[in-house]
Amino acid sequence: MLTQIANDTRTPAVHEPVVAVLGQRSRVAGLPPYLPGGWHMRLATGLDDIEWGELVVLSGATVHDVRVARSVLPPDTRIVALIDDWAQAELVSGVLTAGADVCVRGGHPGILAGHLVACHRRQRVERWS
């Protein structure tokens, strides 16, 4: 079962992935039911609130947001840029060039969840290789 953590100081076990969300909360409101069992979603207060190993979703991401996040966060942190459905191709290429691991246009939360699962798998493989 998915547990949503909002400003919770508990630290989940290492094997339980955490999705830390920065930005527009309304865009990720429907995400928790689509995350795998044992995963947690929390609303981060800023980049300094991101813990090692968390998957970071920049909701309503801009190129500047991604550039700053990539410069502050450890290199192995997965950054997912969530943008509007109707965003222009320049924004997609801009956030990817700025360092996002993946760019997801809004839409169904199941699509975002699928990208988060894929990012987590890549993150685990890289740590073991």
From TrEMBL:
Domain of life: Bacteria
Name of protein: Uncharacterized protein
Organism: Actinoplanes couchii
Lineage: Bacteria, Bacillati, Actinomycetota, Actinomycetes, Micromonosporales
